[in-house]
Specification:
This is Endonuclease/exonuclease/phosphatase. It holds the Pfam family Exo_endo_phos_3. GO terms for molecular function: endonuclease activity; exonuclease activity. The chain is α+β, with helices and mostly antiparallel strands. The protein has two domains: about 1-15 and about 110-375, Deoxyribonuclease I, Chain A (4-Layer Sandwich), CATH 3.60.10; about 20-70 and about 70-105, no CATH class. About 25% of the residues lie in helices and about 25% in strands. It has seven helices and 20 strands. The strands form six sheets. Strands 9-10-8-1-20-19 form a six-stranded mixed β-sheet. Strands 11-14-15-16-18-17 form a six-stranded mixed β-sheet. A hairpin with a 5-residue loop joins strand 14 (about 205-210) and strand 15 (about 215-225). The longest helix is centred in the middle third of the chain and has 24 residues, at about 230-255. The chain is globular, with a radius of gyration of 22 Å.
C-alpha cells in the first residue's frame, strides 16, 4: 500500500487573509480575529476587555461596517455594538449572554485550475491512504473526492473522514482511504489539555485501519502551530507542547500493543537539531523514523517540502514506527503541483504551473509538496 500526506491548502474556498498580497496586513488581521473571538467568549466583559475589543475592531476595519476585507461581524440576536453618528464605537453588550454572534473570516473560491492541480497531485501520487491537511470540512472533501478527482482521471476514495478541530478557519485534518483499508475506529484529541491549556491548534485525530492481511494500521494526522502569528518563542513553545502530546498518544498506542503507527502531516518545523527544538519530544523522544531518512528516499535534490524547498522548509513529515519502518519500501516527495520558481525553475511542474510553458503561480495546487511511502501491509 502507499501512504501519503498532503497539505492541500483548502479545496473549494479559502479564507481571503491566507492568500492576501500584503502578508503583514493579513497576519495582523488573523491575530486580531483570534484575539477578538477569545474576548467575546467571556461571560462578563471588563472595561479593559471593551477597550481592547474596540481597538481590535478598528484594526479589522469594522469601525463603520460589519463587513471588512478579511472578516465579517455576525450579530444574530441581541446587540453587541452601536455605531454612533459621532463616530463613537459603543460596545453595549456586557457579556456573552447579552448577544448571539461571532466574527468570521471572509472566504473566496479556490482558483479552478488550482483545484484541478490538487486533484492531479492525488491522482499521480496514487496513495491508498492519504492524511489530508487544511481541508474545509467533510462534505467539501468528499465532494472533491467524488466529483473533482474523476474529472482528472482519478478514482474517488471509498472513505473520507474529517473531525472538526479547534481552528475556526476551515483548515482541519482528515483522512481518505481506499476500500481495502476500512476505517475500523477513530479518536479525536481535540480536547487534549496540559498544564498550559488546550494543546492542539487543530486536532491530532487517530484513524485505525484494518489491513488486507488482518493487521491494524493507525495513522495520526497533524497540523502543528505555524511560525506565523505571535512571538517566535510562543510559537515554538506551542509546537513543543503539541509534539509532546503527539508523542504521548503514540506511546499509548505502542503500549497497548499497536505496532504499526504512522504520524503524518504538516508539523510546521524542521527536523530537530538539539534537545530544545520544538519537535524534539516527537522525533528525538520516540522511536519514530522520518521517511526522509530511509535509504533511497527520492527528494529530487531538494530536502524541503514547502515553498522553495530549502532544508529550512522541510516542515511536512511522515514518521513511521519501527514495525512500519521494517515494511517500508520506496518513498519520496511529489512536487509537480508546487510553483517551481523562475530563476530557473527548480523542478518539473504541471504545464499550468510551469513558467517555461506559460504556467502561473496562482494555479499551484499548494505551497506544500505531497509525501509518500510504500508499505508492505
Amino acid at each position: 500500500m502507499r501512504l501519503a500526506s498532503f497539505n492541500v491548502e483548502n479545496l473549494f474556498s479559502r479564507a481571503k487573509a491566507f492568500d492576501a498580497e500584503d502578508g503583514a496586513e493579513a497576519r495582523r488581521a488573523l491575530e486580531a480575529y483570534a484575539r477578538f473571538n477569545a474576548l467575546i467568549a467571556k461571560p462578563a466583559y471588563r472595561d479593559t476587555d471593551l477597550e481592547r475589543m474596540r481597538e481590535l475592531l478598528e484594526t479589522l476595519g469594522l469601525a463603520r461596517t460589519d463587513d471588512a476585507e478579511f472578516v465579517r461581524l455576525r450579530q444574530n440576536r441581541g446587540d453587541f455594538l452601536v455605531r454612533r453618528r459621532s463616530g463613537v464605537l459603543d460596545i453595549v453588550a456586557r457579556g456573552r449572554g447579552d448577544w448571539n454572534g461571532w466574527l468570521e473570516l471572509e472566504r473566496e473560491p479556490v482558483d479552478d485550475t488550482a483545484m484541478r492541480m490538487t486533484a492531479q497531485v492525488l491522482r499521480d501520487v496514487g496513495a491508498d491512504v492519504v492524511g489530508v491537511v487544511e481541508a474545509e470540512n467533510r462534505p467539501a472533501l468528499k465532494g472533491f473526492s467524488d466529483t473533482i478527482l474523476p474529472l482528472v482521471g482519478g478514482a474517488p476514495y471509498a472513505q473520507v473522514m474529517l473531525i472538526d478541530g479547534n481552528d475556526p478557519r476551515g483548515i482541519d485534518c482528515a483522512l481518505m482511504a481506499r476500500g481495502d483499508f476500512p476505517i475500523a475506529a477513530m479518536r479525536s484529541h481535540v480536547d487534549a489539555v496540559d498544564a498550559e491549556g488546550l494543546v492542539f491548534s487543530r486536532d491530532c485525530p487517530e484513524y485505525h485501519l484494518d489491513t488486507p492481511d488482518g493487521g491494524r494500521l493507525v495513522v495520526l494526522v497533524n497540523h502543528f502551530k505555524s511560525k506565523a502569528g505571535g512571538s517566535q518563542a510562543a510559537s515554538n513553545a506551542k509546537r513543543r507542547r503539541q509534539a509532546a502530546e503527539a508523542a504521548r498518544i503514540y506511546g499509548r498506542l505502542r503500549d497497548a500493543g499497536t505496532d504499526m503507527v504512522a504520524v503524518v502531516g504538516d508539523l510546521n518545523d524542521t527536523p530537530p537539531d538539539g534537545p530544545d527544538h520544538p519537535l524534539s519530544p516527537l522525533l528525538d523522544g520516540t522511536d519514530l523514523v522520518d521517511i526522509a531518512a530511509l535509504d533511497g528516499h527520492e527528494d529530487g535534490g531538494h530536502p524541503g517540502t514547502f515553498g522553495g524547498a530549502a532544508a529550512s522548509n522541510k516542515i511536512d513529515h511522515i514518521l513511521l514506527s519501527p514495525a512500519l519502518r521494517e515494511r517500508a519500501g520506496a518513498s519520496g516527495v511529489f512536487r509537480r503541483g508546487m510553483w517551481p520558481g523562475v530563476r530557473p525553475p527548480k523542478w518539473d511542474a504541471y504545464p499550468e504551473i510551469d513558467p517555461r510553458r506559460g504556467g502561473e503561480k496562482r494555479h499551484a495546487a499548494s505551497d506544500h509538496a505531497a509525501l509518500w511511502v510504500d508499505l508492505d501491509v
